[in-house]
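Sample A.
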Amino acid sequence: MESIQSIQFPLDSLTPDYFHGLELVTLGGKDYFTLLNDLTSTIYYYDFETRNLDRLLSFDTGDGGISRGVMSYYHIGEDSIFLFGKKLTSYMVDLEGNIIDKYNLLDLSIRQSTYSSSKNPALFLDNMIYYNSLIWGMYEKDYFPILRYSMEKRHVELSDPLPEVYFQDGDWGKLWYDYAYQALDSKNHRIIYSFPASNTLFVRESGDIGLKEIENSRIFDPILPPFESNQYVYDSDEWNMEMNNTPIFKSILIDYENEILLRAYLKPVNSSIRNAKRSISLVKYNLNSLELMEVLELPNNYYDFDNSFFKDSFLYIRILTQDEDFIEFEKFNF
């Protein structure tokens, strides 16, 4: 991988420097870098070429608006945006922010917390919305963290359990391994999943029921649970040391122009610091076959691959800095 340059987008005083949602979109023939301020339920549209803020799209919250605010978003075509809500209801809106439709994605009888970001978005496939939920520290075979919403029946259903790798002896630590990451492969009409504890990818093919493990995507040694049991003190030095010393797979990213998929792999680090910085490998797959192509290494450990995107076959990865006035990305050619 070759670093070419870094680019910056300015942040105003209302926008925190963490993001559940960012997206590169093309509207009216113009490329925009967009991000979500989830504190104010506002999407920021930046002209990608000039890096200047072009416009804001803010959503009213409360009665008559977006109840309790927006957790994440993504554009569907050039005329609508799906907003994943922070509570019961999610929304389809037009580019002016007018509500087109509502979806009650949280069924209170299913006692699981839903979550969404740009790297684990709610996705539409076969007249269903597929999305993620969790119960921290739940690693049982009858636990189904992936949910689906039937557009026809207008109700929530349990969809998929965790992969078998989660049912080893031991405990995964009630945090990083509980989340799943996914991306819509619109070229092949499927959803691709990355589970943090699994060294294989999984797919949901259009027309199929359930997830299929992709054996030829297997890489690295199997990951073992960091703890023998759940008898640990969460966020203690000992807990952080064990978690940091265990590798983890994270989000995936698709480049349609080169027909590749990247999957982030965080290497172990011997540290008891919370959220210790780790070296990151990027596992590169053929998008169509999901066969392994090569493993790339990021040059430093100050990147956040969860905030990344492709444009014109260049990879942009967020650089973690102390500057709260900008969000910065490094541009790579590979």
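Sample B, a different protein:
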Amino acid sequence: MSFLLFSIATSIILFYFTKSYLFFSIIAIGIYYLIRNNIKLQSLLSLTYVLMIALSFFSTIRGYDPKGLILLLISCFVSILYDIFKSPIWSLPLYLLLGISISLIGSIKYGTIGYFFGLLIIPIFLKEFKKRGEQD
């Protein structure tokens, strides 16, 4: 229930900063995880929501384009596929989109070198892939 409330709050905050109705679709993710109750993915998505809020907040204050915000939203929806199929291969699109969006966010401040920040997601993906592979 708390993840649903956090999803609603995130969608309202993102709408306030971006003026895009697209972010109200985050509520659907909250409803899905209210039914499925996958704590691990809920915690990952909560961190993604915080990143989305921070990116939209700072882009509004500093006046730059929030690159990577839509990719973060898409990666949130891809997490549903990962939860449904529970196969290690379905974690690849989730972590790939997260890595690309982190690269775009890093490029805002650090330019070309900031694109390498997306590579930080590779050890997390390998750990998850190994753990899921052992469970199957």
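Observation for Sample B: The CA atoms of residues 103 and 115 lie 4 Å apart.
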